[in-house]
Amino acid sequence: MSFLTTKELHNGVKIPVVGLGVYKMIDGSVYEAVKSALDIGYRHIDTASFYENEEGVGRAIKDSGIPREDIFITTKAWNDEQGYDEALAAFQRSLDKLELDYVDLYLVHWPVPGKYKETWRALEKIYRDGKAKAIGVSNFLPHHLEDLMSEAEIMPMANQIELHPQLTQVETREYCERHNIVIEAWSPLGKANYLDDPILQELAAKHNKTPAQIIVRWDFQSGIVTIPKSVKASRQKENADIFDFELSAEDMKKIDSLNQDKRTGPHPDEFDY
């Protein structure tokens, strides 16, 4: 198993289980980061209009020489781009910046109250028009998903949420599993805030891996798609080198036990929309 290991979305589209997140990478550094990731073997890149680096991502994809259909690209509609017409216009802006004819996954970035249903209607059109191979949401809790799906014609295929061992989001994960929505983890390493945790250190020593690799493997064995961010080629390589060992059931329980419901980002119900 490798970078080509995928998980199937409910419409049959396959998403690579490990990708590169590019949040807070400025345009120049994102180009180099995406180029090095693609050279290493990554085939899944996750960006967003809010990151203001879609141009750099697009240039790196083009310059890589890798066939477009071999790379899985995600981008997202930001909060001030929500609403039906706004989201359609935002999507076209993203396509233009990326210099692509389509994206593989388009997400509603946050559940903006009073707006996300109209935004979703736009995503359904984008999907039907073949401009996005799959559509989904980000930072949606079960009550947002219930509300959305009460009127949606197409069910979300993915939900990208903050998820790491100190924020395991069990309720949202279980809800999504019941509704065949793939979970993606953003900030999967918890911004490297607790890689020195004794349990992670113990498991890293046991498996001759780094704490970051232990977490990414935990994601993989939990059925979670993960997008660790790094501008360094050596770290990118390390983050994805997780297919040559296996965590035991006991190891997995130890990592699960680290949960403190501790966020590094805002709570979706408390975000300043």
UniProtKB/TrEMBL annotation:
Q: Which Gene3D superfamilies does this entry report, sorted A to Z?
A: NADP-dependent oxidoreductase domain (3.20.20.100)
- Active-site residues, Swiss-Prot/TrEMBL: 51 (proton donor)
Indicate what this protein is called per its UniProt record.
Aldo/keto reductase
Q: Does the keyword Lipid metabolism apply?
A: no
Protein residues bound to substrate: 109
The UniProt entry, under InterPro entries, shows: AKR, Aldo/ket_reductase_CS, NAD(P)_OxRdtase_dom_sf, NADP_OxRdtase_dom
Instruction: List each copy of the NADP-dependent oxidoreductase domain by range.
Output: 28-259
Keywords for the protein's UniProt record, in alphabetical order: NADP, Oxidoreductase
Under PANTHER family, the record lists:
2,5-DIKETO-D-GLUCONIC ACID REDUCTASE, NADP-DEPENDENT OXIDOREDUCTASE DOMAIN-CONTAINING PROTEIN
Site features described as Lowers pKa of active site Tyr, chain residue numbers: 76
What Pfam families does the record tag this protein with? Aldo_ket_red (PF00248)
The GO terms this record gives for MF are: oxidoreductase activity, acting on the CH-OH group of donors, NAD or NADP as acceptor
* Keyword Zinc-finger belongs to the record: no
Q: Which family does it belong to?
A: Belongs to the aldo/keto reductase family.
